[in-house]
Structures are given as C-alpha cells and as structure tokens.
Amino acid sequence: MTATHVSPADRQETAVLPAGVASRAVSRGRRRLGTGLLGIIGLVLVLGAWQLSAWLDWVDADFSSSPLGALRALWGMATDGSLWPPLLSTLQTVAIGMAVSIVVGIPIGLVIGRSHLLHGLTEPLISIMYSVPFAVFLPIIIFWFGIGGQARLVIVIWSAIFPLLINVVTGARNLDSNYLQVAKVFCAAPTLTMRTVTFPATLPYILAGVRQAVGRALVGAIVAELFMGNEGLGYVVQLQTSNFRMDDAMAAIAVIAVLAIVLTRGVAWVESRFTFWSSSV
Amino acid sequence: MSGNAAKLRVRDLQLGHRSGRSGSFALAVDGLDFDVEEGEFIAVVGPSGCGKTTFLSAVAGLVPVQAGELSLDGHQINGPGRDRSLVFQQASLFPWRTVVGNIEFGLQAHGRLDDAGRARARELLDLVGLTGKGDKYARELSGGMSQRVNLARALATDPQLLLLDEPFAALDAQTREVMQAELTRVWQADGAATGKTAVFITHDVPEAVFLADRVLVLSSGPAHLVDSIAVDLPRPRDPALKRSPGFLALSDSITDLVMQQSQPGWRTQSDDRHARLAS
C-alpha cells in the first residue's frame, strides 16, 4: 500500500518517487516474473492453510469463515445482485472525492510550490494534516456534517488531498530552473510556460501524489462506511459481521482488496504511460 | 539598418550580482567596450570566473544591465527578446518532448508554430544531422546529440543574434571536435539564419580560433576588454586547419594572453614569436 504514514521529519523525501525509479527498477524481466510468481505461491499457501484448518475443524468456520466459503458467498452476492449497489456506492464516493482532491489539490499545490511566501506559510500546516491520522477527526466531522453521504465525502477528501498536495508542492519546488530559463529566453507567455513547462515537469510528482491519494481515499471511504454508513462495502462488512455471516463479510473484504489493487495499479499504469521520460529525475 | 552601424554595441558596460541578504554588490563586468558587426562570428575567451557567462546572460536579457550601453540594432537590451536565441551550456532539453518537439519550442513560444514553422524544424533536424531521430526523447540522446538539438532549437526562431554559452564544454574531447566542425558547417549552411551574427563564449582558445572571425579576450573579473584579435583564416574551415602553423601560432599567442590575465607575468618557454603575435 502506498498510503503509509511517516514521521514529518522525513516527509519531504516521502513524496513518493516519481514513476521511473521504483517501477522501472522492478520491471526488469525475470525478477518481476519471479517476485510475481512467489507472491502468488505465498498467497495460495496461506489461503490453503486457512481452508485446511477449516476442513479439519482446527478453527470454527462459523467464526473464521474460510476461503471457499467466502468465494461461495461472493458468487451468491454477484448472482443475486446484492454486490453491485455497495460496490458502486464505494466507487462513487472514492471517485467524487478524488475528483475534488485533484481539481482543488493540483492547482493549489502548484501555486504553493512556486511561491516562497505561501510555501512558508502553509508548509507546517500541510505537514501536520498529513501526519495526523485522519481517523481522529471522525467524531468532529460527524458532529459537523452528520453521518450522511456528505460527511463520507468530506472524510475521503480529507484523507486524500494532503498526500496529493505534498507531492505537488514538492514537485513544483523541485522544478528545474533550467527549464524555466529556456521558457524565459524564448519569451514564452506565463500561461504557455505553466501549460508546457511547469505542468509537464511536475507531472511525475503529481501522478505519484494521485497514486498515494487514491489509496488513502479508499481507506477513508471504507472507514467512513464502517463507522457511519448505511451503504457501501465497508457497511456490508460491518453489517454482515454483526449478523454473524462471516463468509459474506470476508467476501466484501476480498472485493475491497481487489478494488484497492485495481485503483493503485491503474494509477501506476497511467504514471508509466505519461511519465516514461522521467527516469533522470 | 545601415551597413556601418554595429549589430551589437557594448559601451562602458557594467554588470554584477547583488549577493544574498548582505546586499553587497559584486561586479562581474566593468567598463566593457566593443562592437559586433552584422554577420560576424565572435568568440569571447577569458580566465574562468571572469564574467563571460554573466555578459552573455545580459545579452540574452537574463541579467539586468547596471550601467552603460548594451544595444542590439540600436535598441537597449532590457530583457529577453525574440531577436535573440541562446544555446545553453547544459542542453536543458525538455525530457517530456521529442527531439522535434524541443526544436519547435521556441517557435511555439513565439506563436509561430504553423506549417512553415514545422517545416523549418524538420529542415533543422536534417541540418544538424539528426535525420530520422525526430521522435526520440531526450534521455535517449548522447551529450553531442543533445547539443545538436539545443543548437537547432536556438536556430529555429531565426534569431538576429545567436548566443552560445560554452555549449561544448561538457562534451568529451572527440565529440567536441566533431561538434565544432558541425557548428561551422551548420552556420555556413543555414540559409534561413538571416543575420548570421553570433557570440560564442568559451574557455577553450583553439575552439575560439577555429570557430570565430574575431576573438575577444577579457581580463579576469570584473571583466574588461584586453584585446580583440581578428582570425584571418580562410573559410570554410575544416578540422585539418587546427594542425596548420598559422592556427597554432595564433591560438598559442591568445592562450598566452588569457594566461597572463589570471597569472600576471606568465610566459611560455619558447616565446619570442608568441609574444610578438600577442602584442
């Protein structure tokens, strides 16, 4: 998971590495295949052990559920259609939250990063907001916004926008002054410089921020649904656990896991697609 | 413009930097005087740290003029202008653009990236010897190739005055030789470059002699003009010229002159002939 909490001290560096470095280092042919295969074997081993424990009655499958039981429950939810509304609800919350974070976060981050004054003023604030686990704000957000969809959205934005901001600000601050000098010498207008120099030069940081933000947005959405939802995958987990239907709860968790992987991998793909040139960063 | 008016006029020029918070002012160029005629290729040499690059940056409009005159075609320079292009010391190519995209940047910035502009970029791609490499990205290029793109980008806007800031300094010796020959070839071949006036900064005296019509020697900082030496070597010049006695004598004498600026009293061992030429 990219959404890791880190101490403020080394936060500047945690602005996730722009696309190139990490992903390309791993993607060298055989090693990637090797770790991918090993990962699958590890997963199968753990699930197999779990299933075996359930079969041999080492654990009570009513409490622990089992991989096959969860799979059966998942199939049931998919065929009777009860899976889709919560999935769509969670996706919608994440999508709207990310859209707001991106539309607000990127321009603000670029402006803060390019202004010495604004950066000085906002740096500690953003740092604190990023470092404090957003869950501690839940009671206050509930107090302010209630427990409806609006409050869930606030939580998603709250959790997603700060990692994005930090990355965009770092990117804008690290902008190579040589690039700006080229724009200056050729008399490029400020808007053209912003569009054709500042933005593309910062794009690796922006997308790394989006990748981190998507992970945190999903965490925010699920946490919000767990505590105050009446819809969404988090709510399904909460409800089915209270109803003592562990297989259904596990099935919902599996869907959340797949969703998390698809979302972060999707952004990672966009990163490699649009910032393939940035290996030199 | 009339034939006898200088293209670039430098009179009693003073440049400097205000350093940090102390506010003290460090002079980089003081009392510099010379003219550059239309169509001249000028090389400026001097001891390292003498203010050559500051001077070029001022001509590019990146460093403000403190005092004196610095005018192009009779207009005082007070900022970057479309009539000038700079070939950067570091290629400073945009890695997110292809080679052609980089060459086109200046035209795009001027709002001139129409069909003619694109054709001009393609023509320069061929001229600098990068035919077929137009779709490559900066990180796929060697140092020499990057500087070819850097040069093409500067030429694309058809500047009145081309400024080159030690563009070959970071290249290995062999590539540098090739690029010097390439620059003279491109310079002589590019028909569209109307003014064909250039100022080339370098610390490499043979490079200066090989490329230039006239070599200006600056003193150690704050820089003023020590001497202006015409290079009466025939054009077109090819690399073999560097082995000719006339070339060697000239660059030795200019090297002496430069060395005297940084180390007063400096003389070569076998120096009668050199001293005579230098004076």
What does this structure look like?
Chain A is an all-alpha fold and 281 residues long. Chain A has a single domain (17-280), classed as Orthogonal Bundle (MetI-like fold). Chain A contains 13 helices and no strands. In chain A, helix 7 (116-131) packs across helix 9 (149-173) and helix 9 runs antiparallel to helix 11 (190-228). The longest helix of chain A is centred in the C-terminal third of the chain and has 39 residues, at 190-228. The radius of gyration of chain A is 22 Å and the shape is elongated. The relative contact order of chain A is 0.16. The model of chain A is unreliable at 1-15 and 19-27 (pLDDT under 50). Chain B is α/β, with parallel strands linked by helices. Chain B has one domain (8-83, 159-278): Rossmann fold. Chain B is built from 9 helices and 10 strands. Chain B has helices spanning 52-60, 99-103, 105-109, 115-127, 143-156, 173-189, 205-211, 245-262, 272-278, and strands at residues 8-19, 24-36, 41-45, 67-72, 75-76, 84-87, 161-165, 197-201, 214-218, 225-230. In chain B, strand 7, helix 6 and strand 8 (197-201) form a beta-alpha-beta unit. The two termini of chain B are 35 Å apart. In chain B, 42% of the residues are buried. Residues 269-276 of chain B have low confidence and may be disordered. Chain A binds chain B through residues 176, 178-179, 181-189, 192, 196-197, 200-201, 203, 275, 277-280, and chain B through 60-62, 80-82, 84-86, 88, 90, 92, 94-96, 105-106, 108-110, 137-139, 157.
